[in-house]
């Protein structure tokens, strides 16, 4: 057991992580200092996710993930409520004014900016993995072998066949000698998943609850014919359950073997966290590269080359969830990350060089396409297929940009995708995909509306007179005109749309002509008023 004994001794003497070291490890592409009280040598003890609906209890040295906090006043309030924290993390851009700087100096709590391409779930996992490495490993030392090696080593120490499982009881690794266990263990190893009937039995007897509430190995007497008892220990990172280790035993372990199993759980936790951190690092790198490609500029060719799409024709997809997560920002962030992961998987199955990454609330994907014609329509079909697959879990829309024949056109394709997505959002639809060319004119109208709003322009001419009359007399002449124009002058259809008799509708139509001076026989006059209705949205 020397490997576990030595490991425990190293863990006792290992210094904990400082805020400065964590920032160095993650790099400025993920976290950067927005406001500092001075040195960044404060000890970091854990990660705390801020929830404005819960009482704020922050242990000394915690890094607070300020989900949903944006304004300078809110940052100051949070700093004062958590004066013992090591740092507060806010999504970029961070609003730092003199009040924030003064509060940082007063409390000694640093304010850090998190890149918008990263999710809260992602940074929480990265921070936890770094803290675990500070607790469990020497600088620059890798994990003690892979999970299968650890399982075999533990099998020899415990004299019992071992499995290492994740939180969902899926088998991550197993030792030799499984044939010495029972039929349930054999089924578990062969299927790489604990069979449902055994999961149900363990849950009904309260063994899972006991396991996850204890930091020590738990002995389970199963009392079933042909079933060997189990000793298991939870694999943890702080308060997060990562998985568990299971040994098939016929009697309780000795104290020495119990300590070996408990020490093994720490090593397995380190391995799992490093594997997850590696996956998160790769995801972050691809997200940064993709963001650079989408933005265009001098660095885009190098980023595209690293993604493998430098010489590829591609379309940009912009996907956004339509559900409202305002009541639970942390859950909304988690949903967006899972949605983006699903999109990345979907496009990667179509083309190995496809990539996806979140930027703010939008998940962008670049989809390489072969030059066979009608590429945008094909990309729309890909988007529709994805929405059909995730529809039961994620309500979303996707905008598709025009084909980018070279890197210089990628930024344009992204702008196209954003505009198509905005049209779908303006329509109030969900579960829809649209190519830019299909919604081009609607997009132009929205852009004109933006210009009108920015210049504080207002309706004029006959339409303005109708709106003024409706406001002063409580009438609905503008709605009458809209119904008439939408029905192409069909009074019967238009009157049904506004739920009035046709004769009443004709009277209203006559009144609105008298009041506004609009000539309904003039096609240019009809076009002008229809455009004003669309632009000003009244």
UniProtKB/TrEMBL annotation:
<protein>
    <submittedName>
        <fullName>DNA-binding transcriptional regulator, PucR family</fullName>
    </submittedName>
</protein>
<dbReference type="InterPro" id="IPR041522">
    <property type="entry name" value="CdaR_GGDEF"/>
</dbReference>
<dbReference type="GO" id="GO:0003677">
    <property type="term" value="F:DNA binding"/>
</dbReference>
<dbReference type="InterPro" id="IPR051448">
    <property type="entry name" value="CdaR-like_regulators"/>
</dbReference>
<dbReference type="InterPro" id="IPR042070">
    <property type="entry name" value="PucR_C-HTH_sf"/>
</dbReference>
<dbReference type="Pfam" id="PF13556">
    <property type="entry name" value="HTH_30"/>
</dbReference>
<comment type="similarity">
    <text>Belongs to the CdaR family.</text>
</comment>
<dbReference type="InterPro" id="IPR025736">
    <property type="entry name" value="PucR_C-HTH_dom"/>
</dbReference>
<keyword id="KW-0238">DNA-binding</keyword>
<dbReference type="Pfam" id="PF17853">
    <property type="entry name" value="GGDEF_2"/>
</dbReference>
<feature type="domain" description="PucR C-terminal helix-turn-helix">
    <location>
        <begin position="477"/>
        <end position="535"/>
    </location>
</feature>
<feature type="domain" description="CdaR GGDEF-like">
    <location>
        <begin position="299"/>
        <end position="423"/>
    </location>
</feature>
């Amino acid at each position: 057991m020397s490997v576990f004994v030595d490991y425990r001794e190293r863990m006792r003497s290992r210094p904990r992580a400082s805020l400065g070291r964590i920032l160095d490890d993650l790099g400025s592409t993920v976290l950067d200092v927005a406001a500092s009280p001075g040195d960044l040598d404060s000890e970091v003890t854990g990660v705390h996710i801020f929830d404005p609906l819960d009482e704020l209890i922050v242990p000394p040295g915690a890094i607070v993930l300020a989900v949903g906090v944006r304004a300078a006043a809110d940052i100051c309030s949070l700093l004062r409520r958590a004066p013992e924290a090591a740092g507060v993390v806010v999504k970029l851009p961070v609003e730092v004014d003199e009040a924030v700087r003064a509060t940082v100096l007063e409390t000694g709590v640093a304010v850090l900016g998190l890149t918008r391409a990263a999710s809260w779930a992602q940074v929480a996992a990265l921070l936890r993995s770094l803290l675990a490495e500070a607790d469990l490993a020497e600088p620059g030392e890798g994990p003690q072998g892979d999970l299968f090696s650890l399982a075999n080593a533990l099998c020899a120490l415990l004299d019992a066949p071992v499995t290492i499982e994740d939180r969902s009881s899926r088998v991550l690794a197993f030792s030799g000698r499984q044939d010495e266990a029972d039929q349930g263990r054999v089924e578990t190893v062969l299927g790489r998943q604990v069979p449902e009937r055994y999961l149900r039995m363990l849950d009904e007897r309260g063994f899972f609850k006991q396991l996850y509430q204890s930091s020590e190995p738990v002995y389970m007497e199963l009392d079933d014919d042909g079933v060997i008892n189990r000793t298991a220990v939870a694999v943890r990172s702080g308060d997060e359950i990562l998985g568990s280790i299971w040994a098939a035993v016929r009697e309780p372990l000795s104290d020495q073997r119990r300590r070996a199993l408990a020490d093994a759980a720490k090593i397995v936790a380190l391995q799992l966290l490093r594997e997850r951190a590696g996956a998160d690092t790769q995801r972050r790198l691809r997200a940064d590269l993709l963001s650079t490609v989408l933005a265009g500029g001098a660095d885009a060719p190098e980023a595209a080359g690293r993604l493998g799409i430098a010489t590829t024709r591609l379309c940009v997809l912009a996907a956004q969830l339509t559900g409202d997560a305002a009541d639970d920002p942390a859950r909304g962030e988690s949903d967006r990350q899972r949605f983006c992961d699903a999109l990345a998987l979907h496009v990667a199955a179509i083309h190995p060089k496809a990539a996806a990454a979140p930027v703010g609330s939008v998940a962008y994907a670049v989809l390489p396409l072969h030059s066979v014609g009608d590429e945008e329509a094909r990309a729309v079909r890909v988007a529709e297929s994805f929405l059909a697959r995730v529809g039961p879990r994620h309500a979303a829309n996707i905008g598709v940009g025009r084909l980018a024949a070279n890197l210089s056109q990628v930024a344009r394709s992204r702008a196209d995708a954003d505009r198509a997505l905005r049209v779908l959002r303006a329509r109030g639809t969900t579960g829809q995909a649209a190519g830019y060319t299909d919604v081009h004119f609607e997009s132009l109208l929205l852009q004109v509306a933006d210009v009108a709003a920015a210049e504080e322009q207002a309706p004029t001419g006959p339409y303005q007179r109708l709106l003024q009359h409706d406001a002063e007399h409580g009438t609905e002449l503008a709605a009458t005109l809209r119904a008439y124009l939408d029905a192409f002058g069909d009074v019967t259809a238009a009157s049904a749309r506004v739920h009035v008799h046709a004769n009443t509708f004709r009277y209203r139509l006559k009144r609105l002509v008298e009041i506004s001076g609009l000539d309904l026989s003039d096609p240019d006059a009809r076009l002008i008023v229809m455009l004003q209705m669309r632009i000003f949205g009244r």
